[in-house]
Amino acid sequence: MPPFLRRAMRALLRFAPQRRLAWLAAIAAPVWLLPAPFGTYAGLTVSLLVVVAIAIDVLLLPAAAAVGVEREFSASVGIGDEIEGSYTVTNRTRRALQVELHDQLPPLVEGGVQSIALRVPGASAQRVGASLRGKARGTAPLGDVGVRVSTMLGLVSARYTFDTTDAVRVMPSLAGVRRYRLLAMQHRLDAMGIRVLRHKGQGQAFARLREYVRGDDPRHIDWKATSKKGKFITREFTVERSQTVITLVDAGRGMTQLSGEFSRFEHALSAALILTDVASSSGDRVGALVFDDEVRAFVPPQASKGALTLVRDAFIPVHATSREPDYASSFRFLAAHQKKRALVVFFTDVIDVRASQALLAHVTHSAARHLVLVVALRNDALFEAAAPCEAASTVQLFESAAAEEVIQAREAVLERMRRAGVVVLDVSPQTMTAGVVNRYLELKARGAL
Q1: Which residues span the membrane (predicted)?
Q2: Burial status of residue 75 (CB atoms within 10 A of its CB: 0-12, 13-18, 19 or more)
Q3: Which of 391 and 424 is assigned the larger pLDDT?
């Protein structure tokens, strides 16, 4: 087909009849039923008038350059979070236009306008507010925006598509981090379930005894040494050295199970980010490692204000998979890259008895070098099945017995970890963040590391 014909076809396909044209044709059709020859002349006249009306409507429709659409949204959104944005439709003609705005978003997000009708006066712009919500982590283009434009006659509409280059990046949510910081500033951490612990020595380590000088804190006077020396002796402190905290996140098949709207893996990432922020704010060096059958992401421990951003960015491309986690290779990787003693906070699922044996072996072996905190994510549905109601059926009773057996095997594995010196936190994914932060604060307050 010659190029000019292709252009003509595309131009024709841009136009589409509206419902008002169908009603007009339906009203004019009975004229053809009148007796000939009056009916024939009347039908031709009415049809010609309809064609003229269509032609006028097409001529009144604006060119593509006379209509504009701008979509404004932040380039990133946390999974489960909402961001506010807008669409601005510009009418550069002098006539009012009826506009239907259409937007088809990628599966990573939901919301937008999808489809909305609005009237845009001549030589003006109309702004429509909308929100986007992150559904799955990743980066994807938002796609093109389409509009269907019609005049006040409303017989024919024209379709225009506007190419856009904007993209959205769905990343782990920092809403919990921001909420924690806000509550910390307001001294209301108890609203999040966090117990504020007072560190002995105000977060400092004892250095030596020396003679009291004016201006020293009287609370630091060592009265036993004072009685021996016959003069005031005070304790001198040095600031504690920063510790190393590494979040180790299992991305194997057990973490793909849903806990509420999101998988247990997403809950683990959220808790890991909050712990990273808390530990970094406490002066600790923080790092992260994510693995399934191989290491998927690794951030070496570091003490910097940008540590949280580095960990968050490392989490963006990783997803829980249906693969079996390779505990041996992940702990070998950790041993090779972290020689010094550290607090390893390990988010994992402990339910499969056979897999738990391998987990037990490597966790207990690692506990000889590091202080290991295993955050064992419960399967809430399993615990619910283990406690049937009084009117349970025979099938439900069998399900309850099977669930109870799995829970007992799981408890046995966790108890063996505790006896091997591993700190275990058995918690639901929905409520684990406060438990993880509390346990970290307790370990830090005791100087366990």
Answers
A1: 21-38, 44-69
A2: exposed
A3: 424
